[in-house]
TrEMBL record:
It comes from Sporichthya brevicatena. This is N-acetyl-gamma-glutamyl-phosphate reductase. The active site is at 146. Its main location: cytoplasm. Its EC number is 1.2.1.38. It comes from the Bacteria. Residues 4-136 form the Semialdehyde dehydrogenase NAD-binding domain.
């Protein structure tokens, strides 16, 4: 019997992906899978792919049902985790996939989420300098958002190495529809999305903007300026982020690639592709991996870094399990794969 594990929000896309990954994890056993409107239904009625959970029923969203778990994953809508987290024991490992505890700036949280700020937990991006050690000693971990993961891991090494300017970072990133959660909405219907590519929450209005700024500022050691434009792509999952920043004098493609290579050589889930090879969302499908490529554009004087992730993998459930492994002292890669499913 492994460590008793609970997933709150198990009927959503991120919760379902967590259940899928946990089904193959040798040290974590799911004893409680909670839902809200789907409580009382079989897990396989909500997630037909999860046949290993046949016979298990989704439990109601009752914090008391989480009391006996050693590990608790909160895969809940933004703003819903804080109240539940307050009821949990200090010795329980809690990984929050929502945004409740990600931001250090309370004013930024209240501006974008319009709720009181509940506090700040250890930020669960192991590849950022110093974060892995903090995660290893934590019992409360704020899992990063999907867009911030793709952008921060693309640009952090360049900012840390002083290869690019901090005052004019521009990001255009396209996400699959699962990034919006499992909800009925006209703009997410197949008939609306297929054959279409559309921007949304432009002009700094997206709630991930302050988290992107926070992560990149941490890497740069100073406040950065970020312009972020998200796009909705006609695919169920995946993010492709194109990130640009002004080059410092004398910096070329080789220098950019050298900085990324140095940062990620020993990282199991971040892969600098061979020169000339471009990231594809399909290549990271179902994996906890990040694919990155960089080039210097001499005409515009800008660095261009492209990253691809699975927004439900490294952008949510995969990274949550990676963080849990680290905090529990388990091998970081346990139950996770860097190999995508293709075609």
């Amino acid at each position: 019997m492994g460590m008793r594990t609970a997933v709150a929000g198990a009927s959503g896309y991120a919760g379902g992906e967590l259940l899928r990954l946990l089904a193959a994890h040798p040290e974590l056993d799911v004893v409680v899978a909670q839902a809200d409107s789907r409580a009382g239904e079989p897990v396989t009625a909500v997630h037909p792919n999860l046949v290993t959970y046949a016979g298990q029923t989704l439990a109601p969203s009752d914090p008391a049902l989480l009391e006996d778990a050693d590990v608790v994953f909160l895969a809940l809508p933004h703003g819903a985790s804080a109240a539940i987290a307050a009821t949990l024991r200090p010795d329980q490992l809690v990984v929050d996939l929502g945004a409740d505890f990600r931001l250090q700036d309370a004013a930024a949280w209240e501006r974008f989420y319009r709720l009181p700020h509940a506090g700040t937990w250890v930020y669960g991006m192991p590849e950022l300098a110093g974060q892995r050690d903090l995660i290893a000693g934590a019992r409360r971990i704020a899992n990063p958002g999907c867009y911030p993961t793709s952008v921060t891991l693309a640009l952090a090494p360049l900012l840390a190495a002083g290869l690019v300017e901090t005052d004019d970072i521009v990001v255009v990133a396209a996400s699959g529809t699962s990034g919006a959660g499992r909800k009925a909405a006209t703009n997410l219907l197949g008939s609306e999305v297929m054959g279409d590519l559309s921007p949304y929450k432009i002009g700094g209005a997206h709630q991930h903007t302050p988290e992107i700024t926070q992560g990149l500022s941490l890497a740069a050691g100073t406040r950065v300026s970020v312009g972020f434009t998200p796009l909705l792509a006609p695919m169920p999952r995946g993010i492709l982020a194109t990130c640009t920043a002004k080059l410092k004098p004398g910096v070329d493609t080789a220098a950019l690639r050298a900085a990324l290579g140095k940062a990620y050589t020993d990282e199991p889930f971040v892969h600098l592709l061979d020169e000339g090879q471009m990231p594809h969302t399909a290549a990271t499908f179902g994996a906890n991996s990040v694919h990155v490529q960089a080039a210097a554009d001499p005409d515009s004087g800008r660095a261009v870094v492209v990253s691809a992730i699975d927004n439900l993998g490294k952008g949510a459930a995969g990274q949550a399990l990676q963080n849990a492994n680290i905090a529990l002292g388990l091998p970081e890669t346990l139950g996770l794969s860097a190999i995508g499913v293709a075609p």
